[in-house]
Design goal:
mainly beta, seven-stranded mixed sheet, hypothetical protein yedk fold
Length: 161
């Protein structure tokens, strides 16, 4: 699963690529719980927004222990009740611009980052969902699926070639 992605393009390049009439500062790398950029459409215009990566996630054990919610930044199972209202409503859909993403590789305790990117594609977009939540405010998460053989893990939905 990819819990890290990066953008090595400038804000101007992203704005031009997605035909967005505004600019924002952007992080070089984004991990769950940190701000990241998304592209949404509102009233026929594309907007570039900075939101925090990761929807609130409450487990029954967390509730039982009175713990605050954790974060979930990857949407793998659309049948999970957590996503019931979000995935069916087009206003909660977004694109997550990136240039490459990382998967952990190696034995536990010694993992390193294995970076992936699209050949001859300076900028790509990852399908995602965004929503304003009572716990964390505006957040986003990215869709996942079973990865192809080039990635070897469950990761973001892209065909590397």
């Amino acid at each position: 699963m990819s819990r890290l992605y990066a953008i090595t393009r400038t804000t101007d390049e992203i704005v031009a690529h997605f035909a967005i009439p505004q600019a924002r500062s952007m992080p070089e790398e984004t991990v769950e719980g940190a701000p990241g950029l998304i592209v949404i459409e509102k009233d026929g215009l594309r907007l570039l927004k900075s939101l925090t990566w990761g929807f609130p996630r409450h487990t029954s054990e967390m509730r039982h222990n009175g713990e605050p919610p954790g974060r979930i930044g990857l949407v793998a199972d659309l049948t999970n009740p957590l996503w019931n209202k979000t995935v069916i409503d087009p206003r909660y859909r977004c694109l997550i611009p990136l240039t490459h993403f990382a998967n952990p590789g190696g034995p536990k305790g010694e993992k390193t980052r294995a970076w992936f990117s699209m050949v001859r594609q300076p900028l790509i977009a990852w399908a995602g969902f965004c929503r304003n939540t009572p716990e964390f405010g505006p957040v986003f998460a990215g869709m996942t699926m079973t990865a192809n053989e080039k990635c070897g893990h469950t990761t973001i939905a892209c065909q590397l070639s």
